[in-house]
Design brief:
alpha/beta; 7-stranded mixed β-sheet; 5 helices; 9 strands; about 25% helix; globular
């Protein structure tokens, strides 16, 4: 019996996982691949709307909210299981969670950075430093799961960071914790910035400077991951107590 040929055509016109580009260039491709047109998409950290600059108006039912408009991504005004897709891009630098506003990232000539990525307010309670970044992602992730429909999509923007001279692979920490709460990591996109990042007051470089970030794509499931749970506990212990290095 003659074997049937698989359907489809050979092409190199594909959506790739790594891009030297801006967020506004990559985000529409993620939507095209993972979010059907006319879906209800809640961008819960909308900010200046940078992600949506190259998305045709009306292609999705966009619900745009942000902390500066009074809606916290950790406490959304949507009913359980009503949203097709949630987009989450909270501040991912521990410098935007400090308790002294004069010492926060994005001061002086970089104030526009702070206005794009946070509410500009110091944090007077809760976890500190990198643990505060993870707490934001983890709490917002649980809230996203609540409002998402079964098999709904969660798109998360994040970046790894060095905090207190310790390397933190934030995207790995998020993936493991989200597996713990019931998300499947379906896809990952790497975004490399076209220009060179700089640092002030450098004496000796000991870690590679981060010039890339991630879009993580998750799907809501009913399953949890014991390995992810154990990993998350270990990371939490390190954040609380530190480790010998």
């Amino acid at each position: 019996m003659k074997r049937k040929s698989p359907r489809g055509a050979t092409t190199s016109e594909l959506i790739h996982s790594a891009h030297v580009a801006g967020n506004a260039d990559v985000f529409p491709e993620i939507l095209d691949l993972h979010v059907p047109e006319a879906s209800t998409v809640a961008d819960v950290t909308f900010g200046k709307g940078v992600f949506w600059r190259n998305v045709a108006e009306g292609k999705y039912n966009l619900l745009a909210t942000d902390i500066q408009g009074g809606i916290d991504c950790r406490d959304l005004p949507y009913e359980d299981g009503t949203i097709d897709c949630v987009v989450l891009d909270p501040p991912y630098m521990e410098g935007l969670y400090r308790r002294d506003s004069s010492n926060m990232a994005g001061a002086n000539s970089y104030s526009a950075f702070r206005s794009h990525y946070s509410d500009g307010l110091a944090r007077n309670e809760g976890p500190k430093y990198h643990a505060a970044v993870l707490d934001m992602y983890f709490t917002a992730g649980r809230e996203a799961k609540r409002v998402l429909k079964p098999k709904g999509t969660l798109i998360v923007k994040c970046q790894d960071e060095v905090s207190a001279n310790t390397q933190h692979l934030t995207h790995v920490e998020i993936i493991n914790e989200y597996a713990n709460i019931g998300f499947y990591a379906k896809d990952l996109f790497v975004v490399v910035r076209p220009n060179k990042p700089a640092m002030s007051r450098v004496i000796r470089q000991v870690h590679a400077r981060k010039n890339h970030s991630y879009f993580l794509v998750f799907v809501k499931t009913k399953k949890t991951n014991q390995l992810g749970r154990d990993f998350s506990r270990a990371i939490s212990s390190i954040n609380r107590n530190g480790y010998d290095r």
